[in-house]
Amino acid sequence: MDLTTSYLGLKLKNPIIVSSSPLTASAEKAQALEAAGVAAVVVNSIFEEQIRDETSQMDEALAADGSSEAYDYLRANIAMRLGPEKYIDDIRAIKETTSIPVIASINCISADNWVSFARKIEAAGADALELNLYDIPQDPNETSNAVEERHLKLVSAIRAEIDLPIAVKLSPYYTNLLNFAHRLDKIGINGIVMFNRFLQPDIDIESETLRHAANLSREQDLRLPLRWVAILRNHLRCDIAINSGIHNAEGVIKGMLAGANVAYLCSALYHNRDHAALINGIINNISGWMQRKNYPNLAAFHSKMCELSTDSCKGFERAHYVKILTSQK
Question: Which of 29, 68, 72, 239 could form a disulfide bond with 261, CB atoms 3.0-4.6 angstroms apart?
Answer without folding.
Answer: 239
